[in-house]
User: Which sequence fits this backbone?
């Protein structure tokens, strides 16, 4: 077994680099590996959790979050894709209620019966991760650390430059709020951008009628600056309500898009 990750930031950085060296792990851009080396995000995650939580962590890394956050759960699943990191996670954070799994965490987010999802994972999989979480109705809370740009997109308002498919999925199914911001020095290797925690609580459940949402939003937002009624007709061939005729695609609310989806799924009208 390995020594637990310290909650003093200077020591956590040394602990992280020591383990990476010991196990000959070189963080890769392809897997988006940036490890927490500051204790503040760990404490921020912990404040959001209750001891009754059944937790899924996607991207357990070295087991830094796993070790500390498993204390706030009745059962904890830590899923990691990199086999070398799985081995380290096990040596750092294994305990009777923690299950450390070598697999694609996005697949587990889609199906595992947990109530809370936490992740400080590769920034490039956040969109897929949130889509999976939205489909899994057992997930009531999502707490993730994302690249600032991605966090802004999750929390954007209709009409803004950041508003898009990711926003629609997040805000249709969850109440979303921006959490603390973290500078690049909180991670190793040091990224070029800030990160932010995004806090999400379930407000709507996924139904069979929502299965066409990714296809519809992909079609609509491929022409996000055009008048909505023209794009809607090319995507789903429906008459547009008067309330939408002056809007552009980027101005459609998540509820506007859900209304279109319900009609199109009922009548099998999505074209692309």
Assistant:
């Amino acid at each position: 077994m390995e020594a637990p990750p310290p909650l003093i930031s200077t020591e956590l950085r040394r602990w992280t680099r020591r383990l990476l060296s010991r196990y000959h792990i070189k963080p890769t851009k392809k897997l988006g590996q940036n490890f927490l080396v500051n204790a503040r995000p760990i404490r921020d995650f912990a404040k959001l959790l209750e001891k009754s939580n059944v937790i899924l962590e996607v991207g357990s890394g070295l087991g830094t979050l796993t070790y500390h956050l498993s204390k706030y759960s009745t059962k904890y699943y830590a899923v990691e894709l990199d086999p070398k990191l799985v081995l380290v996670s096990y040596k750092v954070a294994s305990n009777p209620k923690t299950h450390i799994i070598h697999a694609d965490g996005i697949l587990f987010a889609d199906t595992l019966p947990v109530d809370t999802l936490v992740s400080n994972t590769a920034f490039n999989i956040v969109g897929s991760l949130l889509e999976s979480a939205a489909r899994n109705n057992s997930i009531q809370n999502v707490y993730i650390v994302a690249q600032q740009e991605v966090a802004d997109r999750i929390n954007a308002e209709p009409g803004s430059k950041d508003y898009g498919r990711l926003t629609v999925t997040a805000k249709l199914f969850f109440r979303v709020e921006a959490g603390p911001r973290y500078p690049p020095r909180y991670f190793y290797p040091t990224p070029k951008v800030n990160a932010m925690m995004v806090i999400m609580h379930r407000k709507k459940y996924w139904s069979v009628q929502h299965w066409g949402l990714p296809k519809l939003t992909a079609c609509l937002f491929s022409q996000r600056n055009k008048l909505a009624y023209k794009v809607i007709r090319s995507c789903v061939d429906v008459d547009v309500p008067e309330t939408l005729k002056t809007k552009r695609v980027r101005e459609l609310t998540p509820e506007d898009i859900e209304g279109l989806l319900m009609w199109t799924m009922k009548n099998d009208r999505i074209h692309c």
